[in-house]
Amino acid sequence: xxxxxxxxxxxxxxxxxxxxxxxxxxxxxxxxxxxxxxxxxx
Length: 42
What we know:
This protein is mostly helical. The chain has one helix at 2-19. The radius of gyration is 15 Å and the shape is rod-shaped.
């Protein structure tokens, strides 16, 4: 049971990291890595 929880938690964390904004150009004003000169999310 515990190993299933760890696997599920790992998949959730991995999907969040993959789908998050990258440093090069995040257009979300609430993001930590917001770039005012970005036209689109890279």
